[in-house]
Design goal:
With 358 residues, this protein is of the alpha/beta class. The protein has two domains: 140 residues, Alpha-Beta Complex (Nucleoside Triphosphate Pyrophosphohydrolase), CATH 3.90.79.10; 208 residues, Aldolase class I (TIM Barrel, Alpha-Beta Barrel). Helices cover 29% and strands 24% of the residues. The chain is built from twelve helices and 16 strands. It has an eight-stranded parallel beta barrel, surrounded by four helices. It has a five-stranded mixed beta sheet with strand order 4-1-7-6-5, covered by helices on one side. The chain starts with a strand and ends with a helix. The mean pLDDT is 93.
Amino acid sequence: MDCSLGFIYRRSSHHWMGPGKQPLCFVKRTKTPFIDFYEFPGGQRLASESSRECLERELYEEIGIDPSDCVYIESGKRVNNSKIHISFFKTITHSYQNLKVKLNIYLVSLPHDYKLGSNENKSIIFSNPLYDDRFKYLPSTYRILRLFEIPNELFIADNLNHFEIWKNIKYQVYSCRIRQGNMSDTDYLDLVEKYIANIIKSSDSNYVKSFLPRIHNHRLLIIDSCDIYEKLPQDYREFIGGIHYNSYKLHHLDQRSIWSRDYNLQYLSCSCHDRNDLDKACELNFDFALLSPVLTSKKQNNELGWEGFKSLSSTTGLPILALGGIDNNSKSMELSLLNGGSGVAGISKFWYQKSKSS
């Protein structure tokens, strides 16, 4: 199923905070499944429609937006602030039980006084699920909200030397995965606790608070084991922004065994090496995946090259970070984005380059 939906908010003095933090428009479902749940306005694309035409039709039917009141944002184009501004955001695939839905997501900002009214007599509310739990929302809602803060630069740390480097440059590292690799659970728990203890001891309270996974615009600390997560003290768990599954664990995973988040802003990420891995990640609604090796072969996995990376990432329904021989610089970031990726990840080169530059 191919759908278009609008991530709709009103332009206000808080517009600078980003769309994910605003009160958002939802309509109440009147049919099964998920009857009486709230969802972003939108619906299924007809065979004769483009995704943009589908969006226009659905917004008119569900919340009364006249297409003539809309203008589509294009780079370098001046827009009329009395109009509704629409821009394409992202496409993901979301699995609902036995149904896969392709979601074409558009950002829609309304003039603050624009009046809405459903031509289908649906209930319309403005709410933000991150702060308001009075309503029931479709399961995909939180995943869409998490899309706004998928890391575009992920450091991967897997030894004590990386920890020592991190201590000196931690304010420059916004997203970090602590990789278990061949470490025992005892050694890995000790390493994870070292990171969190160092964060807690920081004299900068804003830095400490920025790790809380219940807050948008946060720093992201991801670990490789939900068992280790459960062993952490409760006050330490609050600094864990997500769980990462390596490709071996991914192969043995299903909906019953996947980690259940404590907070809706925690992420699920995984390591992928081929189309089958990526399909499994999509099936399980992972937030993002690391695709490797891009530039250097590793064990039985041959390098993909940027062309191979593009052929996989551009047709996959979730954000992809390039990994494997990637430098931590603007050129690598540009190559990832040009080839369908959402960012870059790295281990040795990332830590070496960052420590050298500092």
